[in-house]
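Below is how a single chain appears once it has passed through the pipeline. First comes the sequence as given, then the structure the pipeline wrote out for it. We keep one example in the README because the format questions we get most often are answered faster by looking than by reading.
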Amino acid sequence: MTIRVLSVASEVYPLVKTGGLADVVGALPGALAGHGVELTTLIPGYPQVLASAGKLRVVHRWPALLGTTARLLAGKIDGYPLFVLDAPGLLARDGNIYTDAGGKDWHDNWRRFAALARAAADLGSGGVTGYTFDIVHAHDWQAALAPVYLRHAPVSATVARSIVTIHNMAFSGWFDPGILPWLGLPDDLFTLDGVEFFGGVGYLKGGMQAADAITTVSPSYAQEILTPEFGMGLEGLVAARRDRVSGIVNGIDPAIWDPASDAALSARYTERTLGRREANKRAVETRFALEPDDGPIFTVVSRLTWQKGMDVLAECVDDLVAKGARLALLGSGDVVLEEAFRLAADRHPGRIGVMIGYDEAVSHLLQGGADAILIPSRFEPCGLTQLYGLAYGCVPVVARTGGLNDTIIDANEAALAAGVATGFQFAGVSRDTLTAAIARAVRLYADRAAWTTMQKRGMRSDFSWERSGLRYAQVYRKLLNT
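Resulting structure:
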């Protein structure tokens, strides 16, 4: 039996992307197709989506979707079914999909993403003629009201089952309680067992309360969010619904992330032709104005935020250079951290190169040319950059948390002797622990045979969506059989 799933998210690669969520949502249809799941993706109709989505046809109209006219457009994304919610009054604006030109959240984000969730619930409960779904799969807070609408304001008595996937608990979608009357939900939902969250309306909280199942993006993160340190005030709800919670590690799309065919690289290579990778290292040196030498290049491809541990890395860059290493950084975020890395590059010309912003092609080149990638996150639900690093022979140096813990095997003495190490882990994000991890990597890099062996082992790791796709399909089938 084919399971029909509606996947609802605020972004999807390649149409619109601000982070790893888009990569995951874009990969899911293909990952599930071989497991008897037909997955349709629903995303907002931002200007860039409407401009790049190709041919779309109108399949439904709302005269008043949370107070605005809207249309449902149907098309394809990479050959798989796609819905686009076209609501110009909420979505027709330039710039970042979440924030205005000043970097502040759009004032009406509560309405923009509630409309997305309401449209998903209509599709999941027979409100759009010609379409039925067995499951509505909502990603993060922007889609999390969909299970709430399905349960408390359905179009019909027959509704789809629902799942919420938490990609990052730190973003919960909290809004002023005054919005509740405008959401079209019952007034009595403003309770501890409903959408009330610390005196406001919590979108993720409400979705977790109403959903039939909850998933996170790694088994370790599923355990971590049971604690106050990682649960962000929702750990009690996670504990109460623990039997409904599971962790499934993300995969990566080999059609996009494959060093053997990646057009962004100066030289393509495989595990068997790893020597060709040197040309990419030279290209990284040129692109980031680094002095050519035989020492390692560490890279960072990240948001420059406290969560990602970038403040600690900024404290370590002088130590990194002192150990004979170089750094190529691509990222943006906290303006104080951006300036800290610019100043580090000024202190160490030719040893540290910084590009503030994001460039997809450059991120591929860094994975294909740098020797190691630094990921000192204080918490990381799954993480994708370490998986890209494995695939490209860019050895991950990671904090022991969340999905980083689940996907990287530390190069300790026993793991090296057993031939299973794929990177470096360190516990506790501090200057001392990160500097020590960098020192370990520099020392092993000096043993080029051991380093090359570890690169090849990482490239042989199973970082595809095959196992993850199967796990999602199993969750879907279990949900429909209960």
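The chain has two domains: 3-251+466-480, 271-459.

See the next section for the split statistics.
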